[in-house]
Write a structure and sequence with these properties.
The protein has a domain at about 35-115. The longest helix has 30 residues, at about 20-45. The protein has helices at about 5-15, 20-45, 55-65, 70-85, 90-95, 100-115. By secondary structure, the chain is an all-alpha fold.
Length: about 120
């Protein structure tokens, strides 16, 4: 545990940087908005006869029924919370590539829903 004893101090320092704080809020907001759009587009596709291709999400849908999106959004909150707690350039660089990937998934869901 002593290996990461420095982390809370450095995280607190980074949260004091207006630039890093703003960047973290923008990236976190985009990630969460995309997670919501993913849920919406998935439900739209399912309502139009599509089948969930992701086995984990399919399991969530089968297990939780109409409330499947709650654990999905809880999983999406992990990188959001990480970015907001530790707004460091490296964290932003590591997590930011998730944005275009998730945007592609949302776009693909809409393509399937409207085809």
């Amino acid at each position: 545990m002593a290996l990461f004893a420095w982390l809370p101090r450095v995280a607190a320092q980074n949260r004091q940087s207006p630039r890093l704080k703003k960047a973290a809020h923008v990236v976190a907001g985009i990630l969460f908005a995309l997670a919501l759009m993913d849920v919406f587009s998935t439900n739209l596709g399912l309502a139009n006869g599509a089948v969930e291709a992701n086995k984990l999400i399919g399991w969530l849908q089968g297990t939780f029924g109409m409330w499947w999106f709650i654990p999905k959004l809880m999983l999406a909150m992990i990188p959001v919370a990480m970015i907001l707690w530790y707004p460091h350039r490296r964290v932003l660089l590591i997590v930011s590539p998730v944005i275009p990937l998730t945007a592609f998934v949302v776009w693909n869901n809409f393509q399937i829903a409207f085809s």
